[in-house]
Amino acid sequence: MSDQPVFVLGEELQALELAGFETEAEFQELLARHPRVLDFGSLADGRPLRLVLVAREMGVSASAESGAAYWLDHLFVDADGVPTLVEVKRATDTRIRREVVGQMLDYAANAARYWPAALLQRSFEETCGKDGRPLEEAYGELLGGGSAGSAGSAEEFWLGVEERLAAGRMRLLFVADRIPLELRAIVEFLNRQLRQTDVYAVELTQYRGGGDLRVLVPRIYGEVATAAKSPSAPRATQRTTRAEMDAAIQARPDAEVRRVATALLEHAAANGRLEGGTAKYRSMSVYYPVSGRQVPVWTLSLQDGPVRDDLSFAFGSITHHLGRERAAAFAASLPAVPGLAERLQALPAKAYNAWPSVALSALAAEPGALEDVRSAIHGLIDGWEGSA
């Protein structure tokens, strides 16, 4: 790269000299305040891409039972609900060559498993609060004029983001003031191989002039590899339908598992709202009306090869909407099924922000467990009248 200055011509010619970022923190703050420098490409409907900051230093867990083990520099999202994970390094940091790639893949793999919708929503709203940005304005940008209180649209948006993460539908951005050739080669290779995930390197060059005048010049690497991806790669996803769930349930060999899965869906249809997932496997989430809100409470997932059928409880969402006390009461009312009991006991240490799950086979094997789950849900809906 040439170290020649760039020139700004106004009343007189002014030279702006190439200048690095003094600290990584300065670099990160610039991206958080001005994500437009990372906007390239377009949304599914052809509108220009506009990234919106979800959080800086977003915690990434390494297991369902642990707290944050890593910290992603920035998490952004666009109006299509596609998350963008960003790692920032200065050229003087030797990790920009290879180590940062393994670091990013760690983040992406674990974010896809351990970032529930409620955590994403809470992180975004807390960021808006810290930045002094009204939620109505922020959600208007994401929801196309909608608001945080419009018919559960915010919750549905973040559930969509969670499902895209689970399906691997995301962008990974390596941002530096100089991108080495080794990183460019890795980015282009990953971009050709990954069907759902787009990988880019963004070289952001800074020039400084007199006073506060700065010029930022972004250069994108990886777009050619993105364009060369197979046109048959599935870029759009469809939601699982009730008919597809029913067919998958009937294909299960265990009659008790079929009974439990069917009973759960029937209870949800009678008392709440079912919404199909968009992951590669079949799944449905259930929203129940609680205290005037539509609160996501559980998700039923049916996975093949090998078969894995799970019921997961959305404690992050329950805590976000109803508070920790009601989440704790709900946890205490669930049956102590092997596998689930241990995960429920770990909830207080995680501030009830987790997705404890139980295999349907374990639920089916425990006498009365299904009835206890349904009773717990009714307790949540009714608010445990008379409880402290």
Structure commentary:
This protein has 388 residues and is of the alpha+beta class. It folds into 2 domains: 6-227, no CATH class; 242-382, no CATH class. 39% of the residues lie in helices and 24% in strands. Strands 1, 2, 3, 4, 5, 6, 7 and 8 form an 8-stranded mixed β-sheet that branches. It has a 5-stranded antiparallel β-sheet with strand order 9-10-11-12-13. Strand 9 and strand 10 form a beta hairpin. The longest helix has 17 residues, at 255-271. Mean pLDDT is 83; it is low at 145-152 and 230-236. GO terms for molecular function: nucleic acid binding.
- Spans where pLDDT lies below 50 across 5 or more residues: 145-152, 230-236
Structure annotation, total helices: 14
Beta-strand residue percentage: 15-25%
Shape: elongated
Work out the radius of gyration. 23 Å
Number of separate domains: 2
Largest sheet: 8 strands, mixed
For the secondary structure, the number of strands is: 13
Helical proportion, percent range? 25-40%
* Series of secondary-structure elements, N-terminal to C-terminal: EEHEEEHHHHEHEEHHHEEEEHHHEHH
Distance between the termini: 66 Å
Mean pLDDT: 83
Derived from helix and strand composition plus strand pairing, the structural class reads: alpha+beta
